Amino acid sequence: MRLSRFDKAVVLAVLTLAALLSRLPALALDGHGQYAGSMGGAGLALGLGADSFFANPALLGLASRTERTFLGTIGFGDELAGHVRPFRFERPQADGSVTFMAKNLALTIESRSVLEEHVDHGSHSTYRGDKLTLLELDWAYGRGPLSLGVRAKAIATNTRSEVVVNADQLLLDYFIQSAIARYESVGELSSISFGLGLLLDYEWIAMGVMAGQFAYSTGEDPLILDNDSLLKTLSWGLSLSSPIYTASNDLHLLRIQGALDLVNLGSDEAREVRAGVALTLQLLPDWSVSLLTGYRETKYQVSNLIRFSAKDGRHSIAVAGEFAHVNLLVSYEYPTAWYVNTSAPSNSRLAVSMSVEL
Predict the structure, then answer these.
(1) Residue 147: is it exposed, middle or buried by C-beta count within 10 angstroms (0-12/13-18/19+)?
(2) Whole-structure pTM over 0.85, yes or no?
(3) How is residue 251 annotated by DSSP?
(4) Has residue 321 been placed in a domain?
(5) CB of 322 within 8 A of CB of 288?
(6) How confident is the model over 163-213, as pLDDT tens digits?
(7) Comparing C-alpha atoms, which of 248, 263, 295 is closest to residue 276?
(8) Are the beta carbons of 57 and 195 closer than 8 angstroms?
(9) Contacts with 253 (C-beta within 8 Å, 6 or more apart), sequence order
(10) What is the DSSP string of 258-295?
(11) 278-337: per-residue pLDDT in tens?
(12) CB atoms within 10 A of CB 128
């Protein structure tokens, strides 16, 4: 593929940012793609972007998928709380990811830096720093409407007990502490796991099933095949999509896509209902603007799957743009506990991300 000077400049800028920030928010570590993160994380059966297979590797087997050879994403997000002057980061998270693809095979390398447990000391703030590095291999085989995907991934964890960020040089200290400073490896938190995905796709409607972890190993433990882990990470998803083109092969001006996922069905701690909708204004086949919204809610009991509880949910809204090889997204997520005037377990969050597809 020959790239224009503009495309080459964009690719160079993204790779430079990735090298400088090193740890630049919804990626493989979260189990869903960039756009799906703004749809409540729903996307087990929805091919919404080149990174959709992060939710289900079987999406790599879609016959209608546009083949890519490279995908690079950077992003930054932070919680929003009542700030006093000068400004402080609350829980900054920076992610960077590169994926190399060949037909139905994808290799992803992702790095994440998170500063948590913020304590404000006036002239400076202290945090606990965590760095996660992921190596993930996804492969799929598709035949007709049916696709089967396999995933293998390894996660290494590094931590630092105290990270100091001075208020008078906030950005410089954050860059040094998140991208340059040394972190200690925590071997017992590192892991290797294997997952399986299934997709049944009939263009306008699709259904996906994902077992996120049927075999795993933590630290230096041997690999374990575990039925309990398989059930805890078992997820089901359904999606609906309007067609891209009309019967006369003209581009539809508007396209709507929706998804519903039931995630981690066997886990009382991580079970969630996720749903989202994307409305896309299609200007050209590779130029579009999208409005995305989604909702996710933790379900601690199976009997509550069809019940709505605002105090356990989060609502997200985002604006995204696809401009040939470049995707930009700005998203905002907040706890729905605000609707019922109850205290929320976490703050709202603002995130910005950019990706390049080749």
Answers:
(1) buried
(2) yes
(3) B
(4) no
(5) yes
(6) 999 988 999 999 998 888 899 998 888 899 999 999 999 989 999 999 999
(7) 295
(8) yes
(9) 281, 282
(10) EEEEEE-TT-TTT-EEEEEEEEEEEEETTEEEEEEEEE
(11) 999 999 999 999 999 999 999 998 888 888 888 889 999 999 999 999 999 999 999 998
(12) 15
- Strand locations in the chain (E): 70-80, 93-102, 105-120, 124-143, 146-166, 184-185, 191-201, 205-218, 224-225, 234-241, 254-263, 272-284, 287-298, 313-323, 326-335, 348-357
Q: Exposed, middle or buried, 246 (CB in 10 Å: 0-12/13-18/19+)?
A: exposed
Confirm whether 286 is domain-assigned.
no
Within-domain flag for 327: no
Using CA atoms, how far apart are residues 357 and 325, in angstroms rounded to an integer?
Answer: 5
What residue type is 37 in one-letter code?
A: G
Note down the domain range covering 172: 5-251
Nearest to 349 by CA among 333, 337, 336: 333
CA 306 to centroid of chain Cα atoms: 25
Burial class (CB in 10 A: 0-12, 13-18, 19+), 145: middle
With contact defined as beta carbons under 8 Å apart, do 199 and 62 qualify?
yes
Please name which of 26, 21, 79 lies closest in space to residue 54, comparing C-alpha atoms: 26
Measured CA to CA, the distance from residue 320 to residue 164 in angstroms comes to: 34
Residue 83, in any domain of the structure = yes
For Cα atoms 267, 272, 277, give the angle at the middle one, nearest 5 degrees: 155
Helix (H) or strand (E) holding 6: helix 5-21
- By CB neighbour count within 10 A (0-12 exposed, 13-18 middle, 19+ buried), where does 283 fall? middle
Say how many domains are in the chain. 1
Do residues 129 and 178 touch, judged by C-beta distance below 8 A? yes
Question: Angle at the Cα of 146 (from 140 to 150), degrees rounded to 5?
Answer: 25
